[in-house]
Description:
The chain is mainly beta and about 120 residues long. About 0% of the residues lie in helices and about 55% in strands. Strands 2, 4, 5, 6, 9, 10 and 11 form a 7-stranded mixed sheet that branches.
Amino acid sequence: QVQLVESGGGLVQPGGSLRLSCAASRNIAIIKTMGWYRQAPGKERELVAIIPTGGTPNYADSVKGRFTISRDNAKNTVYLEMNSLRPEDTAVYYCNFRVGLLYADDYWGQGTQVTVSS
């Protein structure tokens, strides 16, 4: 069994920063993509950022220029650097690993709450 363990969420003031981390409990040999999703109150879950293995990251329009996704392949870890945070960024954030060679399986983190409020 593979578990994705998230950390780094919390309460911050508008304009502040947070860095989210998501690490797999064991090595995963083939990771197609690593990504972050979020679900805000009253809204559908949405893709925030995704970074394919060997590819360039993509971001939701609402976070472009403010968030940066990165990965440490040796540690099977994905990060989300969040800057210039706004109240609209308040949500539960979930990490996702899509793994496999001939097929794909999705692994999800437990979710971490990010609250942006003064």
